Automatic annotation (TrEMBL):
Annotated transmembrane regions: 6-24, 36-53, 59-81
Organism whose genome encodes this protein: Chromohalobacter sarecensis
Signal sequence bounds: none
InterPro entries: DUF421 (IPR007353), UPF0702_alpha/beta_dom_sf (IPR023090), YetF_N (IPR048454)
Domain YetF-like N-terminal transmembrane: 12-78
Pfam families named in the record: DUF421, YetF_N
YetF C-terminal domain span: 82-149
PANTHER family for this protein: UPF0702 TRANSMEMBRANE PROTEIN YCAP
Compartments, as annotated in UniProt: Cell membrane
Keywords, comma-separated and alphabetical: Cell membrane, Membrane, Transmembrane, Transmembrane helix
The protein's name in its UniProt record: DUF421 domain-containing protein
Source organism, top-level taxon: Bacteria
Length: 168
């Protein structure tokens, strides 16, 4: 078979199979990225690329690789819901960067976040005064959550690294 014809046939079939596999695997496969999701996505892309350009890799091998990668991702996410050890291995913890009017300089340095990025996140949330911000959290996917105003409870900050033990 001519290499271009091989690429066309294998490409279309692999692409369609990959879409079906991802749809069957559930929303978690396409969630916001953390390091684990990044690895899975790169592995799927690399497998698709190899299927498209390599005449030495069969369609069956490519489909098996897709299924294996998604199955491993399912096993890891299934396990992380049931085991804190697995959860801690594959997913980082959200981190408090700004709390009750104070930048948490040491934490920001550890996370390689500068004050300008925290201020940008505050502005992106339509807040002009840092005094109107209760907390800014660096989420596990690298995004910032800005919690406006000081409420009566810090319950939304449960599980965030760096939250003071005496809340309030």
């Amino acid at each position: 078979m001519h290499p271009v014809v091989h690429t066309l046939i294998i490409g279309v079939i692999s692409y369609l199979v990959l879409i079906v596999i991802i749809r069957l695997s559930g929303k978690r496969t396409l969630s916001k990225w953390n390091a684990f999701d990044f690895v899975v996505t790169i592995a799927l892309g690399s497998t698709l690329s190899t299927a498209l350009v390599s005449t030495e890799v069969s369609l069956a091998q490519s489909i098996t690789a897709f299924i294996l990668i998604v199955a491993l991702q399912f096993v890891i996410t299934f396990s992380s819901v049931r085991s804190s050890w697995v959860k801690n291995l594959v997913k980082s913890q959200p981190t408090l960067l700004f709390f009750q009017g104070q930048f948490r300089e040491e934490t920001m340095a550890q996370e390689r976040v500068v004050e300008a990025e925290v201020l940008a996140a505050i502005r992106e949330n339509g807040i002009a005064d840092v005094e109107a911000v209760h907390a800014v959290v660096l989420e596990t996917d690298g995004s910032f959550s800005v919690i406006p105003g000081a409420g009566n409870s810090d319950s939304a900050l449960d599980g965030v690294a760096g939250i003071p033990s005496s809340k309030g």
